[in-house]
Design brief:
single chain, 254 residues, alpha/beta, nine-stranded mixed sheet, two-stranded antiparallel sheet, 10 helices
Amino acid sequence: PDPQNAAAKAAKSEAAAAAPACKLKMGWDPWEPYQYLTPEGQVKGLEIDLVSAMATKAGCDISFVQDNWVNLLDGIRDGSIDMLGGATKTAAREKFAWFSDSYRYESFLLFVRAGETEKYTGKSLKELLDSGFKLGVTEEYLYGDRVNSLHDNDKYSAQFVTVPITEVNYYNLTQDKIDGFLEDPFVAAYTIRRKGLQGQIEALPLEIHSTDVSIMFSKKSVKKATVEAFNAALAKLRKTGQYDGILAKYRRAK
């Protein structure tokens, strides 16, 4: 036997064993602090850290694809994108996607121009719309049944100003094109600070929607066993305390 050939075969076998069991393309759109691009061109954030930690334990390697949420959903439908984080499970989406166990809690608050909170405080979203309030929302984001029912009502639909990228809402508010917009409080805090909008935008004490979110996997490109591997990985992260450690890092960053 050729010892050199045997050594090469052994090395090749060892490399194959060490290689990830699966390779997945994760779609993302800028949404600090959950997912963002660093000046060095790296994708970072709370969502990225959580999902990457799960992927490592599940034996998967992730590459990242940036696009807007609408296009990424289309990618999940046709299998060109394998997974998306921060997704809400719906019957419509379950037709083309698998969902992991819930791994994060998400909420939306109503943000308005600074100095105008007093005139809006104490009113429901319906009461605000009745007064002519123009509301900024992001295309294909899920804001809950209360917002959906108002949006679908012909009486109010024209008062919803839809944008493809959530950051446009900040511009529209400061330019008086809308009266307020819905946003995750962690995201708003980071974006307001980064854009230097402190003193210009404030949150109302009105939580519009809250829900648990999951990872969404394309049924066209991902096997159910992979989803189960991510669920097992999430359970391990929670048990070892790694999950809480990741969340704590971003609480400190806030």
